[in-house]
Every structure is written in C-alpha cells, then in structure tokens.
Design brief:
13 strands, alpha+beta, six-stranded antiparallel sheet, five-stranded antiparallel sheet, 29 helices
Length: 816
C-alpha cells in the first residue's frame, strides 16, 4: 500500500487541526448563546447609573461607596408636584391623578411623605421631647440660668397659657411650658417646605397651590426593550388630572393652568434606557445595514453577507458575555459604544473575501493561512488601540475597551475558524469591485512639483491650510465637566431643578461624610460639624440635613434633658404661686432614644437615608459606622471653599464634592492622554521605520495630519476639547495607521485597496453614527473619529510610494 505524499499528509493534518479548532470555537459559541439567553432575562444585568462610569478614588474608597449608597437610596423614588392657582382645583386634580395610578403596578405611592404619617411621627418623638433642642433653644436655655432671664421665660409661658390659640399646640401646656416642642418641629419642617393640609402635602409658592406626591417604583428601572412604563403611567395620570378639571364647568377655564413637575432617578434611568434602545438600533443596525450593503455591492453573493453577519453577531455576543462576566453588569453606554464595533469587526471577513475574489484558484484554507499573519497584525494594532482606552481609571471606559477588544478577537476567530470550512463556491468579480480596485491607480500621489510656479501655488495652499488649522486650534476650548456624561432630556432636567428648588430638597452633589468607630462617635462628630456650619447657613441662606437633627447623640440627649429639666422646673416654680397651684413637670422617657429604636419607628422616615451604617467592602481609612450631612438650597458655588474649610481639623469628617473631584480628574487624564498620544505616535513611527525604513513617514503622516486637522475642525465648529476627544485620537492612531501600512505593503494592489476602502468606509459610517448619540461624551468620541478617519482615508492613498517602488511581494513580505 502506498503512503500519502508528505505534502498530502501535511495538508490532511492541517485540515484536521482546522476542523478541531472550528469545533472548539463552536462549543464556546454555544456556551455564549446559553449565557446570552440568561443575560437578557436578568434585570440587573444592565446598568444605567452614571456613577458606575466614574473612577474609584483609591485613596478614599469609602467616599465612593457612600456616593453609591446615596445613589441607590434615591434610585427608587419619584417626586411629583401638581399646582394650580386655586387650592380646590389642585386637590381635584391630585385626586384624579392618584386614582389613575392606583390601578397599575409600575408606581406605588410612598408613605414617607404622606401627610397622615406626620401625626405618627409626632407621637413617636413625644416621650423624648425634653432632649430635642435646636441650637438657638440650647443657647436660650443656657442663658436662662440667671434669675432675670428665668423671670422673662416665666412671663412668656404665662402669656402662652392664657392665649392658647396663638399657636398650634403639639402637647399640653404643662408638658411644654416654654413652647420648645413646636419650635423644634418648626426647625425640622424647614427641611422641606411642604406642609400637611386637608390630607395632602401642600405648598403655596409662585402664585400656585401645590400638592406633593411621592412614589416608589416596582421592578427594575433599567430595560432595553424600549418600554416606558413609568413615563406612560405618569402621562396617563396627567391626562386624568387635566380631564378632571375640564369635567367641572366651574374650573374648566383653569384646566390648562395645571402645572406638573416630576423628578427622580428612575425617570432619568428610564429616559437613558429608552435613549440607549434608540441609539443601539440606530448605530448598531445602521452600521450592520451599511456593512452588508457594502459586502453585497463588492461581492454580489449571499454567502459573504451571511458569513460576515455571522462573524459580527458572534463578535458582539461574545463581547457582551465576557464584559458581563468581568464586570458583573454591562452599562448602557458600553452597549451604545459597542454598537459601533460592527463597523470595525467586519474588516477580517472583507479582507478574506477580497482576496478570495482576486485569487479564486487558491483553496480557502491555504488562502486563510496566507492572510493569517496580516490579520493577526491588524487585530493586534486595533486591540492595543482599544485597550489604550482602558488606561484611564474609568470603569465605563474599561468596559468599552474590553467589549471592543473581545468583540474584535471573537469576530476574527469566527472568520479564521469557520470561513474556510463554510465558504463553498467562488466569488466572481463585478463592476463595483473592479471600479473600486481600479480607482487606486487614478488616485493622485502627492509629490513636490518640479516647476517653480506650481511649487509657488503649493506653498500658498499649504500656508492657507496652516492658517486655517492654526485658527481652529486657537479657538479650541477645554471642557472637563463631568456632567458631559449626563444626557437626560432637557425638560426632565428643568423639571428636576425647579422641583428641588421649590421643595428645598437636599442635593447629593456635595456632602459631608462623617465616620466613627460607633454610632455615638458619628453623631458627636456630626454635632461638631454643625456648630461650624451654623454661621455659614445664616450668612449665605442655605440649610443642611443631618442625622443628629433627628437623633442627637447620647451625650447631647443627657445634657439637653438635664438643661431642659432645670430651666422648666425653675419656670414652673416661678409661675406656680401666681396661679395658686403647685405645678409639677411631667416625667419623660428614662431610656435614651437609640439608633435601633429610631430606625424601627416612624420617626426615621424623613432622615433614614442619611444613615449609611457600616461601610463594608472597602478598605476605609477609618472603620466603623458612617453618615452623611447633605446641603439644601445651595446655589452659590463661591461658598464651596468655605464649606470644605469647615471640615478641616474635624476627625472623621470629610467634605465631598464628587462632581468637582471627577471634573478635575478628567482634566488630569486629558493631559496625561495627550502626552500618551504623543508617545504613541513616536512609537508607531519607530515601528514603521524598522519595517519600512525611509518610507515610514508615508504610513504615519496621514494619521498625524488627520489628528491635528481634527482638533482644528473641532475648534472651528465650537466643540470643546475633553478627555473623550483624546481617547478617540488614540483609537484613530491604532485604526488609521493600518490604512497607511496596507498601502505601503500593497501600493498598487487593487484587491487590497478594495478591502481597505470597504473597511474604512464601514468604520467611518459606524463612528459617524456614533456622532449622532445624544450623550455628549459619545458624540465627541464619534465626531472626532468621523473627522479623523475621513481625513486619513483621503490622505493615505495620496502618500503611498511612487508607482515604481517595490511591492511586498518583491520584499518577500506578507500582508493582507
């Protein structure tokens, strides 16, 4: 029996190895398919919280955890205000609103701001009335230690006894002869301007009578199916409220005067999810349609379309699964950015079919072996460019970098493992492919003219372009504001700002983080901080919300109870003879008000979110418990340095301005990425010089010029320079320099030019669509690449070597 020839045995072995690799990849892809089915069933798999995009402060991780706790606590509540010029009309509209929402499950009315809960809260605190004092009351009672001051308090108490209708009494006179109880509640009520009235929470301001309603959401706030359940429910309630006003002829004229304000993290999350659904469809499906159209025009066969689409689908699915496995969830912005991956990942299939079309006589597996070194080189450069995005300490950017890198690798593995086995038949040349390939020969090559007059014209053109570019660069403005990551609808943002201003809602943008070894130490440190804040609040007209306002420290409770008992006993002893009675002050609770008792009772409803408890899961600079002190009505940013100074020297107290800190970090990394970009250009030029020698500048210069021209265009268009522009320029270097490399390797090869043209066009379309994103950061990224890739695509063929230069075949090289 004759043995097979060596080359035959080698071919058989290679075929078996190829089939084995294809089978292993199939098993992996099936596993990814199972994960995908589970992923889309998990409501927690998607993340739309803007805070999860921001970097973690490695020096103070407890600050990041506190920030996330605040965001989580606010992520399930929606506030609504309905206002008309007449209180009766507002009540009628609010009743219709409440009835419209009662029968659906997306929103459940919260009891935290329910007017009926006020009486329960008062009853809860009454046993500890004697140890609940405001700073002003404490100062007043301390001054009453002198006899003259006690007499003045006694006269005031007698006047209150004989004129009980002057103020609403929360307890009988003997239990609170100095009216401290009502004054303390007045101070607590200042934390929100709404007051109970006729069973509603009521606010009268700006010529309107308002009703305030609070709702808790049910289910997850994030879904990518495009549904707007909560927004639809609120729209239906709004329609019902207006219909109720129109139904009564006496109020029909004021029906259109109904104003509705809405605020809450769930509304922003739903808007972000809806926007993400729209942009993923626009960018992802738009990119896919463009890619498949280009593939059809170039190859006129359903087989390349199906296989290229298969590689793209598997690339995106694997990227999604790996990102979810590494990070635990996938952010919506990652999906939007990942949708542009379609315009890059198709390059491998297009390169394969371009070579297949020009070399129909070569067996697919042999052809793939020839292309494999070049494909690996292209993959490496692109992956390194994407991974450069992950150098910044932003979890969102690292997600995008991982998603894109894995997606590209998965798309290439699909092309390498499956295309040679699934691709049967031939791909015939057609007019479109031939026209694109032949256009390379007609593309102008830039060269310095030999005639002086022509050289003079070139000098003038270069000077004009340089002047225009310099003008754009000088007009370029810098913007590192972290709010560029936020893309909520303007009307929702305006409604949120106005509602917060009318109600005096505390903002989590700036706060104090207070830490201590135990609850008592946290409360004592809060009280020390409040002593410093009091002068600032009186001077600048803002307020604060602190846990210790509702739950004083045990030491403060003891001292205030003793102070109150001493002064009130002296006042009653002074009043008793005048009344002819022996007045005895009633006893109050012997046990102090503790955190556990407070959390279990209704008294904690208004301030429970201020208590963070133990900051588990971080290497905090001080272990134990923590709380936050929030600011209300702070609109003057010039006060921020004074607020920061108020925490200096107070152990366990830290001023947190997360937005300011992140904005500064964005600026620092913008500068760092700019330096990295310069170093990367130098490294790329060195690598090209090692490969191509004196011709290296032809591969590097198109991308370098495109980077400068893109910055100039951004300046001329009034677009600010930010970190995301610098990251896009890094990616431009990794992707754009490939065009110059391919044209250095194949300066006169029409099939290679066809692959480059199709790949560059699809990539440009993908990132051009990304420039349509409503998220400013993604739009900046997309615009930068849209300009840069277009300029590289125009310049690269102009700077290819002269017609007589040796090709890669002459040098013995191999490139796709």
């Amino acid at each position: 029996m004759n043995n097979p020839a060596p080359h035959t045995r080698s071919a058989l072995t290679g075929h078996r190895l190829w089939r084995g690799a294809a089978l292993l990849w199939l098993v992996f892809v099936l596993g990814v398919a199972v994960h995908q089915w589970r992923f889309w069933q998990d409501p927690k798999a998607l993340d739309a919280n803007i805070m999860s995009l921001l970097p973690v402060d490695e020096q103070a991780p407890e600050v990041d955890l506190a920030t996330r706790r605040l965001a989580e606590q606010a992520s399930r509540q929606i506030l609504v205000m309905l206002g008309t010029p007449r209180w009766d009309d507002t009540q009628r509209a609010a009743a219709a609103w409440r009835q419209a929402l009662a029968g659906q499950g997306a929103l459940v009315e919260s009891q935290a701001l329910n007017a009926g809960a006020f009486a329960e809260t008062i009853a809860f605190y009454r046993p500890w009335r004697d140890r609940l004092l405001t700073p002003a009351q404490r100062t007043q009672l301390e001054a009453a230690q002198t006899g003259a001051r006690t007499e003045a308090l006694a006269q005031g108490a007698l006047a209150a006894l004989y004129q009980p209708a002057v103020q609403a009494r929360l307890s009988d006179w003997l239990a609170d002869p100095l009216g401290l109880w009502s004054q303390w509640w007045t101070a607590r009520a200042a934390e929100t301007r709404a007051r109970p009235r006729d069973g509603w929470l009521w606010l009268s301001t700006e010529g309107r009578e308002w009703v305030v309603l609070a709702y808790d959401i049910t289910g997850s706030a994030f879904a990518l199916d495009g549904s707007t359940a909560r927004g639809d429910a609120l729209q239906a309630a709004q329609a019902a409220a207006r219909a109720a006003l129109r139904a009564d002829p006496t109020v029909a004229a004021g029906a259109e005067d109904l104003e509705i304000l809405r605020a809450g993290v769930p509304l922003h999350a739903e808007a972000a999810a809806t926007q993400a659904n729209r942009e993923i469809n626009t960018i992802g499906w738009g990119s896919l349609a463009a890619v498949l159209l280009l593939v059809w025009l170039a190859f006129r066969s359903p087989r390349p379309i199906v296989l290229v689409a298969l590689s793209l689908g598997i690339g995106c699915a694997v990227a999604l699964s790996v990102t979810a496995w590494v990070f635990g969830s996938v952010h919506l912005l990652t999906l939007i950015f990942g949708a542009s991956l379609v315009g890059v990942a198709e390059d491998y299939g297009i390169h394969y079919y371009s070579s297949r079309q020009s070399q129909p006589q070569v067996v697919p597996q042999a052809l793939m072996r020839r292309l494999l070194p070049g494909l690996l080189l292209a993959l490496t450069t692109s992956v390194l460019a994407y991974l450069a995005l992950g150098l910044a300490p932003f979890p969102g950017l690292r997600q995008m970098a991982l998603f894109s890198s894995v997606g590209l690798a998965a798309a290439m593995l699909t092309t390498v493992c499956w295309f040679p086995l699934l691709d049967r038949g031939t791909v015939r040349p057609n007019r479109f492919a031939q026209a694109v390939g032949a256009s390379l020969g007609r593309w102008p090559r830039l060269a310095w003219p030999a005639r002086p007059r022509q050289a003079y014209r070139v000098w003038i053109a270069c000077l004009l372009l340089a002047a225009l570019g310099l003008t754009g660069l000088l007009r370029l403005q810098v913007n590192d504001d972290v709010r560029q990551l936020q893309s909520s609808p303007p009307e929702l943002m305006q409604s949120q700002i106005r509602l917060a201003r009318l109600l005096g809602v505390a903002s989590p943008a700036q706060f104090y983080l207070v830490q201590g070894a135990n609850v008592e130490q946290v409360l004592q440190r809060e009280e020390a901080l409040k002593a410093r804040l009091e002068p600032l609040t009186r001077r600048h007209g803002f307020g604060y919300s602190a846990l210790s306002d509702w739950l004083p420290s045990l030491s403060r409770q003891r001292s205030d109870a003793a102070l109150t008992a001493a002064v009130e006993t002296r006042v009653l002893a002074t009043i008793g003879p005048a009344l002819g009675e022996s007045l005895r002050r009633p006893a109050f609770a012997n046990e102090p008000l503790t955190l556990e008792r407070w959390l279990d009772g209704p008294g904690s409803a208004a301030a429970r979110t201020l208590w963070l408890g133990e900051l588990r899961g971080v290497q905090a600079t001080s272990s134990g418990s923590a709380s936050v002190v929030l600011l209300r009505g702070l609109h003057d940013t010039t006060v921020l340095p004074a607020l920061a100074a108020a925490a200096e020297g107070l152990e366990g107290v830290r001023w947190v301005d997360k937005a300011g800190d992140i904005s500064q970090l964005l600026g620092r990394y913008r500068l760092a990425m700019g330096l990295l970009l310069l170093l990367a250009h130098a490294a790329v030029f060195a690598a090209l010089a090692w490969r191509f020698g004196r011709q290296a500048w032809r591969g590097w210069l198109p991308t370098a010029l495109a980077s400068v021209a893109t910055l100039a265009l951004l300046g001329l268009l009034g677009q600010p320079l930010q970190l995301f522009n610098m990251l896009a320029l890094l990616l431009l270097l990794g992707v754009g320099v490939d065009y110059g490399i391919f044209l250095l390797e194949h300066p006169n090869d029409g099939s290679a030019w066809l692959a480059v043209s199709l790949g560059a066009t699809s990539t440009w379309l993908a990132f051009g669509l990304l420039g349509l994103s409503s998220t400013p950061a993604l739009r900046a990224f997309g615009l930068t690449l849209m300009f840069g890739l277009a300029i590289v695509g125009l310049l690269a063929p102009c700077l290819r070597p002269p017609a007589g230069a040796p090709t890669d075949a002459a040098r013995g090289g191999a490139a796709p």
